[in-house]
Amino acid sequence: MKTVIAKALFNSHSYLEYRKLVSDLLTEGKSTGHEQTEELTHYSKLNDTRMNRLDKTIKLNDVVLSQMENLKKEYIWLVISEGWCGDAAQILPIIAQLTTAARGKIDLKIVLRDENEALMNLFLTHGGKAIPKLIIIDKNTTDVLAHWGPRPEGAVLLIEDYKKEHGVLDETIKTNLQLWYLNDKGQAVQKELVETMLIFE
């Protein structure tokens, strides 16, 4: 596992590098990932706009801010993502804010799923390559402490309930999911990630 993670870290991007990569590809009419379709490029464009907005509007609550500022140990947060992923667009700006609040205690690295298959296969969700996936690593030992994702619990339940009732995940649930994120304002992600971090402190 450590070899796979080391290779992924070597090929990783900072948050700003990731944002630029997605944006640059869009100017060529492309999305990240091996598969290139009009639909995926469309989602990437929506997500780029969404992330621009969230980067400006996401606010950490005071308790979360204090807890992140007072982390004692050092960590790497390695995130598996793709530009076309709607959940990643909602969650990555929050992750970026949390790492900034940690005042140098967390080094955020982002890798693309399709370019890091061996890593993705270590962190499947019910056998699927669901993203985003956040891997929390001890910076000194490079041990994996935990992983989180692809969604906060409330969003997971929303998807599960819809699938039970309708048998499919269609455009309606995609819209409902984005509304859930909009109403939540990043609070669930903040809460879950800080609670996870405090376990190791």
Short recap of the structure:
This protein has nine helices and four strands. The chain is an alpha+beta fold. The protein has a four-stranded mixed beta sheet, with helices on one face.
Observed structural traits:
201 residues; alpha+beta; Glutaredoxin; 4-stranded mixed beta sheet; 9 helices; 12% strand
Question: For the largest beta sheet, what order do the strands appear in spatially?
Answer: 2-1-3-4
The proportion of strand residues reads: 5-15%
Cα-to-Cα separation, first versus last residue: 23 Å
Largest sheet: 4 strands, mixed
Mind telling me which CATH architecture this is? 3-Layer(aba) Sandwich
Query: What sequence of helices (H) and strands (E) makes up the elements?
Result: HHHHEHEHEEHHH
Structural overview:
- This protein has 201 residues and is of the alpha+beta class.
- It has one domain (2-199): Glutaredoxin (3-Layer(aba) Sandwich), CATH 3.40.30.10.
- The chain is 56% helix and 12% strand.
- The protein contains nine helices and four strands; from the N terminus they run ααααβαβαββααα.
- It has helices at 2-10, 15-27, 38-57, 62-69, 86-101, 117-122, 153-166, 171-184, 187-199; strands at residues 75-81, 106-112, 133-138, 144-148.
- A four-stranded mixed sheet has the order 2-1-3-4, with helices on one face.
- Helix 2 crosses helix 3, helix 3 packs parallel to helix 5 and helix 7 (153-166) runs antiparallel to helix 8 (171-184).
- The protein is globular and about 45 Å long.
- 35% of the residues are buried.
